[in-house]
Amino acid sequence: MDINPLIQEDPKARTFRKLAGTALVGFGLTICMLSAASAQTLKIGVIGALTGPGAPWGLAAQHGARILAADVNAKGGLEVSGKTYKVEVVAYDDQYKATDAVAAYQRLVKQDDVKFLILMSSPSTMALKQSIEDDKIVALTSGITPFAVDAKSKYMFRLFSNPVDYVPSFVAWLKDNVPQRRVVILNPNDEAGLDQNQLCEGLYKKAGFNVLGKELFERGQKDFQPLLTKIVGMKPDVIDLASTAPATAGILVRQTRELGYKGLFVKSSGPSPREVVAAAGKEASEGMVNLLYVDPANPGYKSIATEYKRAVGQDPNEIIVPFYDATNVLLRAIQKSGSVSDTTKVAASFSQALPMKSVQGDTLTLGGKAHSGVDHQIMTVDYIGVIKNGEPVAVGKVR
C-alpha cells in the first residue's frame, strides 16, 4: 500500500529510502551473479550408436546415464569434498563406427573438457583404448571384446560382466533345458563377433553340442537370404545370434523363419528380446531364449523404463540398467576420491566405491582379474529369459 498522502514524508527520509532500496537491489544482483559464477558442472561423456541398428543400445547408454544424473541433480547435485556439482551428460553418435568414435572423443575431451567417459561398442573402445590411457580419461565400456581391458589398463573399466563370465552358465542352462544339440553360431564380422564365435564354439562343444558352423555377417547388412539359406541347409536345431545388434537380430529371425526354419533361436549376449519381437513378430520369436541384463518384473528396472519411455516414447533396451548402475558407481568413485579433476585418484577409488547395490537390488562387486589381469570390471548379475507371448520372462539367473 502507498504511503498515506495525508502524512508528509521528510525529503531526507525519502532520499535515504530510495538509496537503500537501490543498494538492496544491487546487493541481490551481486549475490545472484556470484551464485551463477560459482555453479559447477561435472560432465560425463557418452559415445555410442544413437542411430542405426545399434541405436537401442546407444540410446540406453545415453539415457541410463542421464536418468541417473537427473536423480542426483534432483537431490541437490553430487557433493565432492564439500562442493556440490550438477551432473551433465554429453552424448555423441558414433553410428557403431570406430572412425566416428575417434572424432567424438576428440570433441568431448578437447572441446567439452570431459574427463569421464562411457563407451558402448567394442570397435570404438579398441580405437580409443590407447588415447584413454594417454589422456588419463576414466572410461567405462560395455564392449565385450576381451582385449578392452588388460593388465596394463589404468583408466579403462568394463561396466558389466563379460560374456566369458556369463556364457558358460547360459550354455549350461541350455544343456539342461534344450534337448536338441545341433547349433549354428551367427555373429557380426568385427572384434566382438569374432571373440564371441570363438568363446561360444568352445563352450557348446564342451557341453556336448554339435557346432555345425560359425558364421559372420557385416554390420549394417539387411539382406541375409544367401547366408541364411546356407545356414538353414545345415539343418540346425538351434541358432545362436550371440552379439548381433538388436534390430539386426529381429531381421535375422524373421528372414530365417521365412525360409522355413522351425528350430530354436537363442541369444547368448547383447540382449534385445523386445526389438526381436518388434521386427520378427510374436509368432516367429516365441520361445526364443535370451541372456537378460534385467528381470523385466523388477521394480527398479520398471522405474527406469518409465523414465526412458517418458523421454524417448518407447520402451528401452534392458542394457539401460548396467549403464545406469555404472554411472552410479562412477559418481561414487568420484566422491570417494574427493576430486572431480584428478582422474588417477578416481580410477583408484573404484575399489572403495564397490561393493554396492544395483538398482535391481543385486550386489555389484569389482573383479575381472582372472580374465584380464586387473580388477577393472563391475561384476553384475544377469538373467536367462524366454520370450512368451511377445514378452521376455526371467526364468533363472547367471553369474
Unreliable residue stretches = 1-38
Mean of residue pLDDT? 90
Radius of gyration: 26 Å
Q: What is the name of the CATH topology of the largest domain?
A: Rossmann fold
Percent helix range = 40-55%
Straight-line distance between termini: 71 Å
Shape: globular
Q: Count of helical segments? A: 15
Strand content: 15-25%
Q: Name the structural class.
A: alpha/beta
Beta strand count: 16
Question: What is the domain total for the residues?
Answer: 2
CATH architecture descriptor of the largest domain: 3-Layer(aba) Sandwich
Strand neighbour order, sheet with most strands: 8-7-9-10-11-15-16
Let me know the CATH homologous superfamily of the largest domain: Response regulator
The main sheet comes to:
7 strands, mixed
Q: Which CATH first-tier class of the largest domain would you pick? A: Alpha Beta
Description:
This protein is of the alpha/beta class. The protein folds into two domains: 40-160 and 299-367, Rossmann fold; 164-292 and 385-398, Rossmann fold, CATH 3.40.50. It is built from 15 helices and 16 strands. The strands form three sheets. A seven-stranded mixed sheet has the order 8-7-9-10-11-15-16. A six-stranded mixed sheet has the order 2-3-1-4-5-6, sandwiched between helices.
Q: Could you list some keywords that capture this structure?
A:
single chain, 399 residues, alpha/beta, Rossmann fold, seven-stranded mixed sheet, six-stranded mixed sheet, 15 helices, 16 strands, globular, disordered N terminus
